[in-house]
Amino acid sequence: MSPRTAAGALLGRTARLRWVHLVLGGALLMPFWLVGSLVVLPLAGGGETLLSGSVSGQFGAYALALPLAALAGLFPLVRPLSVAMARALCGVDGVRFAEGPARGPAARRRTAAWFTLHVGVGGLLSGAMLALPPFAVAVMLLPVPGVREFLRVPASLDRTWVYLLGPLAGLAMLLALAACATAAGALLARYAPVLLGPTPADRLAAAEARAAELAVRNRLARELHDAVGHALSAVTLQASAARRVLDRDPAFVREALTAIEDTTRRTVGELDAVLGLLREGDEAALAPAPTLAEDLSGLLARTRATGTPVDAAVETDIASLPALVSREAYRIVQEGLANSLRHAASSPIALRITEAADTVEIVMENALSEAAAPRPGGGNGLKGIADRARLLGGSCTAGPDGDRWRLTVRLPLTTGRAGSAGGAR
User: Fold this and answer.
1) Which domain of life is it from (predicted)?
2) What is residue 320's DSSP assignment?
């Protein structure tokens, strides 16, 4: 190792930060050491004090302080404080540390072990950093006249060779202290991710939080796709139909423009709600979708305003459907209509909603054409419909049926399944 490399290892930025980490460990040990001193020094006798006690008394207080520090390390909040210091000062990649307070016995034990190691090693090195440098400097100044008398060097050491070796001995002491501090810092950096890293329980909690976040994001994606996608398809076709008959049928144009205004106003409100959730992270802020009873007629009217005939047969009392089933059924009908407009705009749409055996069935058909074939790369409309049906415990089938494209969705009306699906949302 070259002198420059050795100097970098002992005095470089990483080494200096780890020294600071060790000093902080010594500072954290002080309260426990003071408590240990109050117990040990009176037992030692001889009128010893905190500052003038014997070496054995000082180390006795240190030995008693370590178990006290281990007990303090069991508190959950010790881990985030320790992680913050280790992440900033130990030179270890921050992703290797656990986040949040220690939960569970295993995490608390590991945190207590780390805290004890940190304050124990830091206390020893901090004491050495306070005591050794002044002594080393004094040894280096032995050749200076008057220093020997001031330091009261014993006669047995009053030798010329001792004075000549003083500077070298003092420098060796300082280098040894720097090497010990560097080794101690490297030791803590090695064990920091081991003792402060995530436990299996932490990884499970992180996975569950990630799954919950993805579930919310998937729900937002479905809401945006169904609401905004349907609106854009409808508005595009409404504007196209109005343009084609602008000179011949002013009444239809007015109806189409009114439908465009209504569609965009409703969609802007839904878009604001979803974007508000993205900004604030509060799922309760997301306004629920309309139900079939609230807006099925409006949805059909806006679709017909595109110039596409829609033959709807509702053979059940949609007002009596459970709210969750009715909302999801509304989104399914909305997306089914949007798919028909997107892939087969000129084809009449047949919609039938029936109820039988505690199941509501939604069937939507339109003429099969090349436009109805799946797009390159596919889309998310049918997948979103299938997801909504699955979350309610239902089923979804879609595909060609002779010369027709048919979408069939069955949703159970049982309270138990509807309740569990509501929780899944």
Assistant:
1) Bacteria
2) G
Q: How far apart are CA 350 and CA 49, in angstroms?
A: 95
pTM: 0.55
Asked whether residue 269 carries a pLDDT value surpassing 60, the answer given is yes
CA angle (295 as vertex; 289, 296 as ends), nearest 5: 110
CA dist., res. 108 & res. 105, Å (int): 5
Q: What is the pLDDT of residues 2-11, one digit of tens each?
A: 777 777 778 7
| pLDDT of 230 strictly over 70 | no
With left for phi above 0 and alpha for psi between -120 and 50, is residue 100 left, alpha or beta?
left
What is the rounded CA–CA span in Å between residue 50 and residue 54?
9
Alpha carbons within 13 A on the beta-carbon side of 27: 6
- The Cα-based distances of 410 to 289, 331, 359, 391 in angstroms read 19, 14, 6, 12
d(CA 398, CA 386): 9
Kindly report the CATH class assigned to 206-424. alpha beta
pLDDT at 344 over 70: yes
CA atoms 75, 80, 84, 90: torsion sign? positive
Domain ranges in the chain are 3-197, 206-424
